[in-house]
Amino acid sequence: MEVAVLGPIELRADGRSVPVGGARQRALLAVLAARRGQVAPAEVLVEALWGDDPPATATHTLHTHASRLRRTQGLALRAVDGGYVLDLDPDRLDSARFDALVAQAAGEPAPVAARLLTEALALWRGPAFGRAAELVAVRGEAVRLEAARSAAREHLASALGAQGRLEDALSVLEELVGDEPYRETAWTLLTRALTAAGRPAEAVAAVARATRSLDELGLRPSAALRQAQHDALRAGDDRRPAPSAPPSLPAPASTFIGREADLTAVDALVTQAPLVTVLGPGGVGKTRLALEVARGRSARHRAGVRLVELATLSEAAAVAPATVAALGLSGDGGSSSALLRRAGTLDLLVVLDNCEHVIEAVVTVVEDLLAAGGPLRVLVTSRERLEVAGERVHAVAPLPVDGDDPPARRLFVDRARAAGAWTTEPDEAALDRVVRELDGLPLAIEMAAARVATVGLADLGDQLEAGAAALSHPARAVADRHRSLGAVIAWSRALLPPQERAVLEDWPVFAGPVRPVDAVAVLDADAEVPGHLVRRSLLALDVRDGRTRYRMLQTVRSAVLEAAPVRPALRARHAEWFLRVATEADAALRTSAEPEACRLLSVQVADLRAAHAWARGADPALAARLSGALHVHALGTMNDEILGWGARLGPVLADDDPDGAPAQVAVASRLVLGGELRAAEARARRALEVTTHDATRLTALEMVADVALYDGRLDDAAAIGTRMAEIARARRDAHYHLAGLSYPLLRAAYSGRLDEARELLAVAREELARYPDLGPTVRGNLEYAAGEIEVESRPAVALAHLDRAVALAEASGCLFLGGIARVSASSVLARHGDPGAAVAAFEEVVRWWLVRADRTHLVTTLRNLVDLLVRLRADDAAAELWGAVATGGSVSFGAERERLDRARDELEARLGADRFAERADVGGTLAPEPAARRALAAMGTGTATA
Q: I need a surface site. Which of 278, 549, 599, 786 has the fewest CB within 10 A?
């Protein structure tokens, strides 16, 4: 008996597949095969078969399943103390044969290596272990095998290229980047192979494709990929550079002094271990050291580096969503853990900064990131260890204050000169006295150095010496360096005028960078006070897009809060102000000021998060209003974290509380994105039953109408839309006015009544013309509706409208509109345009939904992709995709349903009914996400025909 795991798990005898009875039998076989020759503990097997809620008879039933495998399938399964061992010869397990062939190829010349690798890759039938890869006990082996498969494909391409078989190598690489669009080594090999094949323009285009894929994760191209691009540009006439992602680390604001040995040590630890914690007290320079390590390593990680700033988070539950957001991903409800595990397969350095106040949540995030055992590295800064297996720790001490030209002195001189303190050389003895009083603590040195522009060194030393008891002899059993920071903050605060002191003490109410107007409104401060605190190094200047913002360093915040916590009345004032900010921005989203409003909400998300978190406990009704004000922004930008804030109101507010309606709508929105349409409609209808506010009523009606539209209940959707339009018209809400008008319009278009649809579009344009200042998203939605009307009858006209919709979506920051417009444009290209352009369009939009975890729109996209696969004559892949999406998820109707039926008829004619049914059955076992990845791979190998 042979076991096959390079695809859906199966047993084989004499080359024929042998059925494995039941899901639990397959799960048991998968875990045993993943641990071939090793003990699989009984508790691991029980979890694999029953999850977290096993029956009381689980152990007995496990023995029954194991006995059945041994008896009916003839497997060499041994019971041992505490579990089972599967004794299986390597030649009877396809993954072991694959590993052996790959290992053998490593030392062979190119022709032999290519033959061995081709034989090894031919063993694969799909993703390793199929659906069983979702089991915790199997996941690690499945990830290892997938990584080995990708490496083997790269090795095969290199071996083929070395023989001059460039077209064969290109075929392998195109398929690989289709499967793994974020694998930079594959993109680099593809670029070099295209250049070697005399196709430098295509090589440059490949870099552009790679950069777009990486940009979806917020990653930058590696040095190797940039060099391949440079070589391609030199080889051809196309001199246009590929786009690059924005930098992921803040630019250093000052020179890096005194930490050269720490820099070398931490860099070496990151090379050796997947998890490194930089440990030390507040103000010692942990963050700056970690960022310098990250900058130095950015070119050594193919996926670059990402910074996750946790200092502004006030609750543990926000850590995982905030990390997902910092990595450039977005997840459906409850999917943060899965997305983090997926990110763990990247060659990426993640810096988790300021972790001590949410340490347990950080531990969970780190374990998810490292679960895959991939090349990802995590660098943590914290005041305490994570206590995670494999953690390596580097303790950061204060800077040395003794010796010739000690680092503490050099840092003080550098910062004092930057503040314009001296034109001549300062007295070294006075300098050393100051830095000794400051205990060599970098933050204390920087703040004290800022004072020497107005205070002489001798006076500064006297002032510090007057507090020497507090610095050197703490009254509490805490580290001296921590007491040093508190003393310096207290000293700085004592020197402030009363209004500046009051602002400093209240500033910790802010969680992130804020505008001067925010400080004036919340703290009742004069506009110039924050600038004074910046000059005293008690606040930092944060300039983005030419706009001034202020923020407090976390170490300063800690010391201020130690003296006095934030007053509850100030928390309430902060929440009320940011509710006003969100409400005003929400109104601006309907106008030409939409792009700026969208950027404002994105920059101020830390304070919006903090306001919502406080209000959930102290004023749930305010939190609900804040969720309502942020709803349009969260849906448009597909920001699952913000929707998740509203979802957390569920346990706080009663099910029949009108204030809880926005929470129901938030949950409904997340369920729609996750493809759970029935549950989404139930939540939205519950919101409609209890809400007393038209604003919430509009958001709930939109969810109900969307579900009706996805279900093909076009009359219901149109009726709900008409009601929406009436409410929105009375409220002068352009966004929901157009949304309501669009449902009757789409009903007519999808029912083939195009003249009626065009008339309704004209009415919509006329009604919206009454608004003096429409935003780009509203105008883009009009263009999208116009394009949807014409997709079947006038494809060129439809594409023009849809292209304008995409352009307006990009101008506004509305990711959702950009996605649905791209779906329709790709569908038109699939049937009427150049096949190559259609392939590129679908590659972009399928990955768009994959990265954003929107299963509902992914399924719609894949249904339209079937047409293109048929046109490319990739018949097996088309039949498989048809099986995956033709009947699952939302309902297919109208022209889309007719196209799916025609595709089925054509595929049955070309493949034969039996072959079509076989491939469709395989597709029916696939979830939308793996089905999408397999379809992308097929597009890379299909033969385009007109």
A: 599
